[in-house]
From TrEMBL:
Lineage: Eukaryota, Metazoa, Ecdysozoa, Nematoda, Chromadorea
Signal peptide extent: 1-19
Pfam families: Lipase_3 (PF01764)
Protein name as catalogued: Lipase_3 domain-containing protein
Secreted is among the record's keywords: no
Keywords: Signal
InterPro entries reported for this sequence: AB_hydrolase_fold, Fungal_lipase-type
Keyword Signal on entry: yes
CDD domains to which the protein is assigned, alphabetical: Lipase_3 (cd00519)
GO biological process, one term: lipid metabolic process
């Protein structure tokens, strides 16, 4: 559209494009057309009109294939509450406490290792653990949420300033607080544990869980484990709670292609899960995996 210099020509082009919006069969083919958007409320392909590009209703207005409506994979609310949430909550303890918690609620789960590393300039800790359950044939990696106000403010500043970093391995931009913490924990041993366990138990499912910051770390770890070929996409399950937006739309797209069984459970009014803020529809920096 930037090349639209001669107004008359632009009007003609837009007019032609708009005229055919109604013919688009799918949301994807609709948004690929110049001058059209998909209305996700009415399921119609509509013309943006010349001066009335109304993107105020983020749910209804779709102008990007990634945002097109698609079916929700098998979400299991009982599993979210009684398995994923329990694993995530246990991450706040030390190894003995985690094991005691799992013994109570997830019979068969055994903690393999826990890693706690200082992950910012204020030496706030980030922490994660790996557990194994032979009864259910699962390898579970879990990350702790933000702990303490220093870590919260530092993380918030990182997000407010949109300090993200291009990571070719992840296909897009990732917010640097999450990226840094992910890398430190992965290098501290989580990466090696997942590789070894995937070789020992090639048919086990990888489960990745976490709350808040831990949700972002679980999202990055699940994607990394697939990209490193430790686990097959279909054999990875991600459940996060109150996860902030973790990267840009390219990261989110890459994530969904590689970790299709992803569920991000949020409270509608929780600010953390809406950080960093998306200020308008065309801002693509602040995204998270789709569901
Ligand atoms: C955009 O949508 C909002 C809410 O649906 C509506 O109030 C507003 O009038 C619309 N603006 C235009 C220019 O159509
Ligand atoms: C915005 O979209 C939602 C559904 O996605 C719909 O329920 C709501 O009425 C829309 N709001 C406006 C102001 O159009
Ligand atoms: C970080 O973890 C280490 C080891 O578990 C602990 O000794 C230290 O007190 C923790 N630091 C903070 C700021 O919580
Ligand atoms: C283990 O498997 C059983 C039976 O399929 C299921 O009911 C239970 O929720 C699973 N537990 C975990 C921790 O995945």
């Amino acid at each position: 559209m930037a090349s639209c210099v001669f107004t008359a020509v632009c009007f003609a082009l837009l007019g032609m494009a708009a005229a055919s919006c109604g013919n688009s069969a799918t949301c994807e083919s609709c948004v690929a057309q110049l001058g059209c958007f998909f209305n996700a409320v009415t399921n119609a392909c509509q013309s943006k009109g010349l001066f009335n590009i109304n993107s105020s209703n983020g749910t209804a207005f779709v102008d990007r294939a990634y945002d097109c409506p698609r079916p929700l994979a098998d979400y299991d609310d009982d599993f979210a509450r009684n398995v994923a949430y329990v694993y995530a909550a246990a991450s706040n303890g030390n190894v003995q406490e985690i094991q005691a918690c799992l013994n109570n609620r997830i019979p068969g789960a055994v903690v393999v290792s826990q890693y706690t590393v200082p992950c910012d300039i204020f030496k706030s800790n980030c922490s994660g653990y790996v557990a194994l359950n032979h009864e259910n044939e699962t390898i579970t990696v879990v990350f702790r949420g933000t702990k303490g106000s220093t870590q919260f403010y530092y993380e918030a500043i990182n997000l407010i300033l949109y300090l993200d970093k291009e990571v070719p391995f992840f296909g897009g931009q990732v917010f640097s607080y999450f990226l840094n913490a992910f890398q430190l924990l992965w290098d501290a041993g989580i990466g090696e544990d997942l590789e070894e366990l995937s070789i020992l138990y090639p048919y086990y499912e990888l489960q990745a869980f976490g709350h808040s910051l831990g949700g972002s770390l679980a999202s990055l770890t699940a994607l990394a484990a697939v990209k490193k070929n430790y686990f097959h996409s279909d054999n990875v399950l991600l459940y996060t709670f109150g996860q902030p937006r973790t990267g840009d739309v390219k990261y989110a797209t890459e994530h969904d292609e590689n970790v299709p069984n992803s569920f991000r459970i949020v409270h509608a009014e929780d600010l953390v899960s809406q950080a960093p803020l998306r200020l308008g529809y065309y801002q693509t920096t602040a995204y998270h995996h789709r569901y």
